[in-house]
Amino acid sequence: MKIQRKKKGDYGYPPYETRRVIIRTAAYFLISIAVFLLGYFSTGQKENLLTIVAVLGMLPSSKSLVAVVMYLKIPKFSQDTYEEISKRAGKIPVIYSLYLTSYKKNFAVNCFAVRGGSLIGYTEFQDCDVAACEEHIKGILKQNSIKNITVKVFHEQSRFMERLGQLQELESGKKETEILTLLCDISL
């Protein structure tokens, strides 16, 4: 069975990337352990050059382990929500399953849609602080010289769907792809 490669913004990206990062981390640690054991069994002592190589190999292993911890913190996004939104989105540019990170808080957002000067998001997670999420996104847009964008993140799916329908009637903007790419860049 071939696993389909997913990219940021696709539904199901976080679980796919979590598995990939766990496998990569395990491989890194196994390589370092194998190098240490090779040095130990070939010389009969721990104090050898391969021990230094194995210890240095722990640096990328540890960095990768931090990524595993972060990916394991991402909650599971609802497939029913994804299917309902994807039916209604039409030709509006949409990205799914994002876990935005900031210095103070992290934000799990099911979907972002952008059209014209409006960026809307929906989160099914009640512990997501939508006001802080909106401020974080506005700050990132400002830092990247993207102006005149209204940002609104909804907890209520019905209000998000209503606004998504209103976006259908708006003209396409020039920076829609740039905005969605930026959101992918600031998320796990």
In a nutshell, what does this entry contain?
The protein has six helices and four strands. The protein is 54% helix and 15% strand.
CATH class type of the largest domain: Alpha Beta
Q: Tell me the structural class.
A: alpha+beta
Largest sheet: 4 strands, mixed
Q: SSE order in H/E notation?
A: HHHEEEHEHH
Please give the order of strands in the largest beta sheet.
Answer: 1-2-3-4
DSSP E strands, number: 4
**Portion in beta strands:** 5-15%
Q: What is CATH's topology name of the largest domain?
A: Trna Endonuclease, Chain: A, domain 1
Q: Specify Rg, calculated over alpha carbons.
A: 21 Å
Would you kindly provide a written description of the structure presented here, covering whatever features stand out?
With 188 residues, this protein is an alpha+beta fold. It has two domains: 13-72; 79-185, Trna Endonuclease, Chain: A, domain 1, CATH 3.40.1350. The protein contains six helices and four strands; from the N terminus they run αααβββαβαα. The protein has helices at residues 13-43, 49-72, 79-89, 130-143, 157-167, 176-185; strands at 94-101, 106-115, 118-122, 150-154. A four-stranded mixed beta sheet has the order 1-2-3-4, sandwiched between helices. It is elongated.
Write the layout of secondary structure elements.
Blueprint: H1 13-43, H2 49-72, H3 79-89, E1 94-101, E2 106-115, E3 118-122, H4 130-143, E4 150-154, H5 157-167, H6 176-185
Parallel strand pairs: 3-4
Antiparallel strand pairs: 1-2, 2-3
Helix pairs in contact: 1-2, 3-5
